[in-house]
Design brief:
287 residues; four-stranded antiparallel beta sheet; disordered N terminus; DUF2911; signal; DUF2911 family protein
Length: 287
């Protein structure tokens, strides 16, 4: 080895190991993972974007989240609720759009706040003057312990649902009712009263919708009767019978149910025969 190579080797040993650049930060999971809920309520698409902090052995309400003070209702960026159609939220009409969701937790009740500022991180940019609505709901004990803050959309019945906010041992909830009833009713009236569509299936569907929604029984019975006049099908007669019973005409209901059972027997729909006979037995007791 010549003098030059010996000198380089000596310098390398004296300098120690070569330093390589390292990353300044590690890639770690989010401490409060973000998530999105999507649910159709009636014709309305409901979306909720939020982050999910964990309990981690802490006292949450009355501790980490103080009573009587506004809370971001999650972690990280503000929780965002989006509706594609107008809806009634907590008993109040809300236009379609995007809203930030804040709350003021208390021991017995919570104030629910929907605000039009949607670009904030946590409470950044929140201003009470931008509140679209506020309403109060009861605070309950949750059915189980929720380690992570959890928003759920449950109780989907007809055109409505319930939003639950659950964390630790606490749960609050409020209803969301879509504008589906308004749209469906408008279509029924337009097709029957304006366009004059004289179709048995349309009268039946209109009557069935009113029956299920417990709307105007007299109007529903009129449509059901019209459907039977145009086409005495077993299912049309069955609906007419139930509407007659709802109107208190049990004698008429029994007669319609008997006709429905006969037609169902001919068409080999035995389940309708059973349904009609069961209802006839119940209504005979009311005569």
């Amino acid at each position: 080895m010549n003098v030059l190579f010996k000198s380089i080797a000596l310098l390398t040993l004296l300098a120690g190991p070569i330093a390589y650049p390292v990353r300044a930060q590690l890639s770690l999971p989010e401490p409060s993972p973000s998530t999105t809920i999507k649910q159709k309520v009636g014709f309305t698409d409901l979306t909720i974007d939020y982050s999910r902090p964990a309990v981690k052995g802490r006292t949450i309400f009355g501790g980490l989240v103080p009573y009587g003070k506004i809370w971001r209702t999650g972690a990280s960026d503000a929780t965002i609720l989006t509706l594609t159609d107008p809806a009634t939220v907590g008993g109040k009409l809300l236009a379609a759009g995007r809203y930030s969701l804040f709350t003021i937790p208390n021991r017995a009740d919570w104030t629910i706040i929907l605000n039009k500022h949607v670009g904030g991180h946590g409470l950044d940019g929140y201003d009470e003057k931008d509140d679209v609505m506020r309403f109060t709901v009861k605070a309950d004990s949750s059915v189980r312990f929720y380690e992570s803050f959890t928003i759920e959309v449950q109780d989907l019945v007809r055109n409505q649902a319930t939003i639950y906010l659950n964390w630790a041992n606490t749960s609050v909830h409020f209803p969301v009712v879509s504008n589906a009833d308004e749209r469906i009713t408008a279509e029924i009236m337009d097709r029957i009263n304006v366009r004059k569509e004289d179709k048995p299936g349309l009268y039946y569907q209109a009557a069935l919708y009113y029956f299920d929604q417990e709307k105007d029984t007299k109007q529903a019975l009129g449509w059901a009767t019209k459907s039977v006049e145009l086409k005495p099908a077993f299912n049309y007669l069955h609906l007419q019978a139930k509407l007659l019973a709802r109107a208190g005409d049990y004698k008429g209901a029994i007669a319609a149910a008997q006709k429905s059972a006969q037609a169902a027997q001919q068409d080999k729909f035995t389940e309708y025969v059973t349904l009609n006979n069961r209802l006839i037995a119940e209504w005979e007791k009311k005569l």
